[in-house]
Every structure is written in structure tokens, then in C-alpha cells.
Design brief:
- This protein is an all-alpha fold and 425 residues long.
- The protein has one domain: Proton glutamate symport protein.
- Helix 15 packs antiparallel against helix 16.
- The longest helix has 37 residues.
- The termini are close together.
- Keywords: Cell membrane, Membrane, Symport, Transmembrane, Transmembrane helix, Transport.
- GO terms for molecular function: symporter activity.
- One of its GO terms (cellular component) is plasma membrane.
- This is Proton/glutamate symport protein @ Sodium/glutamate symport protein.
- InterPro entries: Na-dicarboxylate_symporter (IPR001991), Na-dicarboxylate_symporter_CS (IPR018107), Na:dicarbo_symporter_sf (IPR036458).
């Protein structure tokens, strides 16, 4: 008789269900947040603790392996082109979906949530900057300041330059590469240990969310939730499915590889929670370390497919809710603003919400309407996080294929090993 094995994915789902039950039973009870919120925050802090060391060490090793600034520049150029193409498609699909299904039509604006968006508005005002400013800020004036703030883009820039420097000095840099490889291996070991606590972290995070907002908060906005989730599912299966086919794999193989990370990202609504495992798994799937360690972290700022898709739907939802008709030229303007704002706000805490506010203000839609979405933002954030991580993982495969360095044999062997493990379990 086969012995049942409760894998990480199953454990996380159990934690999710228990969190929903506890949050529902103790809805409105502040004691839930008092006891569970610290647990959830500790779990997220554990993840954030290891992200920067992994990104830095992996990038240095990968770039030093490339050792050629011309090749690296070519890789960077292809990566940015790919990111811009996919995010533009995501925005068009989001706007098309909102025009077809009209999720905001018929919503009673007098039922607006009383959630305050003052802090988000202040963030928009304090951090509003141009696309040029974003590229200027990629170059850190103080690397250690970038480390302390956790801003990935300047860390990536410094890591790339440092890796090229190590490659340029030849044998003298060998010991530095070995140290960085050792750091990366140690961090991945830590990641595996931290992941064992994921079910507890998920239980705490979901329990707090449900206890604060309740299941009933979803009812008035069920059409928006269904439209957003349905559009994101379409984007993953059809658009990313086509991209994966072109890249020589399939979207369903990606699901199989990333099932634990998909569940974890969905339940925590945190992309950072799965960044180390994405890099590790894509390398095992046949992507070179140099490409994986560069593309995936960079994608966390420039390839947020789920976030841009959500912002386009949410903007039209609010316009429809207020009875504002947006003409075709106005919607084209919305697309342009989203393309710029989503890059201009890269690295800002609560970026999706902040970008949405900045976008609404730029195209003449009342920003007060965002208060209605704020109560369910966590539910929507869970879905867009999943799209973001699948999109960035697939980007590593697509760029590897584009560079002619994707190892399909290694990828097939990894899938077969996963199948074998599942059969044993």
C-alpha cells in the first residue's frame, strides 16, 4: 500500500484553509491580528532576509561566467525588448477585457469602502518621477544604501559591474567567484529550510486578512474579481502559453515545476517569497545561471505582467463605476501612461496600488474610486502575484532560447525527475 506523503503544496493549502476558517470565525476580532500578524510578518522577513544575498551572489557568479560586456549588453537589450512586448500585450488584454465585460457598470458608488487612501496618495506625490529618473536611480550612489533599502535595480547594476570586473582580472578573481558560489549555495540551503515554515506563515497571513475584511467584503465587487481572475487565467494559458511554445516548452510544464511557488505566491501575495526558488528551479530546468540570475530579478521591476494587467482593468472599472465614458483616444492615452508609470514607479512599496493612483490622476479618473478596491486589494494582489512569477520564470526560458543557450535535454530530465518523485509520493 502506497504511503501518503503530504508535500509542501498540500501543507500550504491546508494552512490557507485553516487561515480562512479562523479569520471567518473571528471576523472583526482584533485579537487575531494581535497574535497572528507577527507570525506572518516574521515569515515574510525571513524570505526578504535571503533575497538580496542570493541575487548578488548568483549574479556575480553568472556574469563572471559570461565575462564579456558585449554579450551581456546583448542579453540586457533582448531582455528589455521582451519585457516591454509582454507588458504591452498585458495592458491591451486588460483594457480589452474591461471593455467587453464592463465590471464597473451598475456598481453603486454610494457603497464605497471607507478605507483611507491618504497614505497611498502621499506616496504618489512623494515618489512621482519620470522614466528618465528611474534609469538614473538604477546606478547607485551608495551600494550599501541600496542593500539596506532592498532596492533590486541598483543592486543588480552593481552586481553586473562587479561580475564583469572579476572576469576582467582573470585568475585573481577566481577566489571571489568561489566565495560568491559558496554564498549562493548556503542561501539556497537556507531557502529550503525557511520554506518548511511556509504553511504556518500562510495560515497567519490569510487569517489576519479574512478577520479584517471578512468574506462579505467580496460580494459587492464579485464581478471585478471574476473579470480580473478570468483575464489573468486567459493571459497565462493563451499568451504565456504561446510564448512557452515558441520557447520550446509548454505552460503546463511550467505549472508542474512551479506548483509549490504558485501556491505560496498566491497565499502570501509576495513575489519575494518565491524569488530564490524561481532562480534555482529555472536553472535546473535548463536555463544558464547567467541568464536566470539576471532576467528574473530584473523582471521583478520591469516585467510585472499581472500588475499592469490589473491596473488596466482597475482603471476602466473605476471609470465605468463613475459613469465616465473613455473614448478610444483616451484609452490609448491610458495605455501610454500605464507603460511609463509602471516603470517610473519601479521599486516603490505597494507599487501596483501607487501606480494605479498615479495613472488615474493623469487621465482624469477620480482617484477616490480606488478606496472601493482597497478592501479587496489583497485578493486581487494574490492573483497578480501569480501572473508575475509565472511570467518572470518563463522570461528566463524565453531569453535562454533567444540566446540559443536553453538546454532542452536538461529541462526534460528535470521534468522526468519531478514525475518520478510524484509517483514515489
Amino acid at each position: 500500500m502506497k504511503k501518503f506523503k503530504c508535500g509542501l503544496a498540500v501543507q500550504i493549502v491546508i494552512g490557507l484553509i485553516l487561515g480562512i476558517v479562523v479569520g471567518s470565525v473571528f471576523y472583526g476580532n482584533p485579537a487575531v491580528a494581535t497574535y497572528l500578524e507577527p507570525i506572518g510578518q516574521i515569515f515574510l522577513n525571513l524570505i526578504k532576509m535571503i533575497v538580496i544575498p542570493i541575487v548578488f551572489s548568483s549574479l556575480v557568479v553568472g556574469v563572471a561566467g559570461v565575462g564579456n560586456i558585449k554579450k551581456l549588453g546583448k542579453l540586457g537589450g533582448k531582455t528589455i525588448i521582451y519585457f516591454e512586448l509582454i507588458t504591452t500585450i498585458a495592458i491591451f488584454i486588460g483594457i480589452g477585457s474591461a471593455n467587453i465585460f464592463h465590471p464597473g457598470s451598475g456598481v453603486n458608488i454610494h457603497e464605497l469602502s471607507k478605507v483611507s487612501i491618504k497614505s497611498y496618495v502621499n506616496t504618489v506625490q512623494n515618489t512621482h518621477h519620470s522614466l528618465a529618473d528611474t534609469f538614473i536611480n538604477i546606478v547607485p550612489s551608495n551600494f550599501f544604501e541600496a542593500l539596506s533599502t532592498g532596492n533590486l535595480l541598483p543592486i543588480i547594476f552593481f552586481s553586473v559591474m562587479f561580475g564583469l570586473g572579476i572576469a576582467a582580472i582573470g585568475k585573481k578573481g577566481k577566489i571571489v567567484i568561489e566565495v560568491c558560489q559558496g554564498v549562493a549555495d548556503a542561501m539556497f540551503w537556507m531557502t529550503n529550510q525557511i520554506m518548511k515554515t511556509a504553511p504556518i506563515g500562510v495560515f497567519a497571513l490569510i487569517g489576519v486578512t479574512i478577520s479584517k475584511f471578512g468574506i462579505s467584503s467580496l460580494i459587492p465587487l464579485v464581478k471585478l474579481i471574476i473579470t480580473t481572475y478570468g483575464t489573468m487565467a486567459f493571459f497565462i494559458v493563451v499568451i504565456l502559453g504561446i510564448v512557452s511554445k515558441i520557447a520550446g516548452t509548454s505552460i503546463f510544464k511550467m505549472f508542474k515545476i512551479l506548483k509549490d511557488e504558485i501556491i505560496l505566491a498566491y497565499t502570501t501575495a509576495s513575489s519575494e517569497a518565491v524569488l530564490p526558488k524561481l532562480m534555482e528551479k529555472m536553472e535546473k530546468f535548463g536555463c544558464p545561471k547567467a541568464i536566470t540570475s539576471f532576467v528574473i530579478p530584473t523582471g521583478y521591476s520591469f516585467n510585472l505582467d499581472g500588475s499592469t494587467l490589473y491596473q488596466s482593468i482597475a482603471a476602466l472599472f473605476i471609470a465605468q463605476m463613475y459613469g465616465i465614458h473613455m473614448s478610444f483616444p483616451a484609452q490609448i492615452n491610458l495605455i501610454i501612461v500605464l507603460l511609463v508609470a509602471s516603470k517610473g514607479m519601479a521599486g516603490v512599496p505597494g507599487a501596483s496600488f501607487v501606480v494605479l493612483l498615479a495613472t488615474l490622476g493623469s487621465v482624469g479618473i477620480p482617484i477616490e474610486g480606488v478606496a472601493f478596491i482597497a478592501g479587496i486589494d489583497r485578493i486581487l494582489d494574490m492573483a497578480r502575484t501569480v501572473v508575475n512569477i509565472i511570467g518572470n520564470s518563463l522570461a528566463a526560458v524565453a531569453i535562454s532560447k533567444w540566446e540559443g543557450k536553453y538546454n532542452a535535454v536538461k529541462g526534460d530530465e528535470y521534468i522526468q525527475n519531478l514525475n518520478s518523485i510524484e509517483e514515489i509520493a
